[in-house]
Amino acid sequence: MSSTPAGRDVEIVVIGAGQAGLSTAWALARQGFEPGSGFVVLDADDSPGGAWQHRWPSLTVGTTHRVHDLPGLPFEPEAESLRAAEVVPAYFAEYERRFDLPIQRPVRVRAVRRTDDDRFRVGTDSGDWTARAIVNATGTWTRPFVPRYPGQELFRGRQLHTVDYRGAAEFAGSSVVVVGGGASATQLLGEISTVADTTWVTRRPPVWREGPFDEDLGRQAVALVEEAVREGRRPGSVVGVTGLLTSTPYIRDALDRGVLERLPMFDRITEDGVVWDDGRSVRADVILWATGFRAAVTHLAPLHLRAPGGGIRMDGTHVAGEPRIHLVGYGPSASTIGANRAGQSAARQLRRLLRPAGDLPRTA
Question: pTM of this prediction?
Answer without folding.
Answer: 0.90
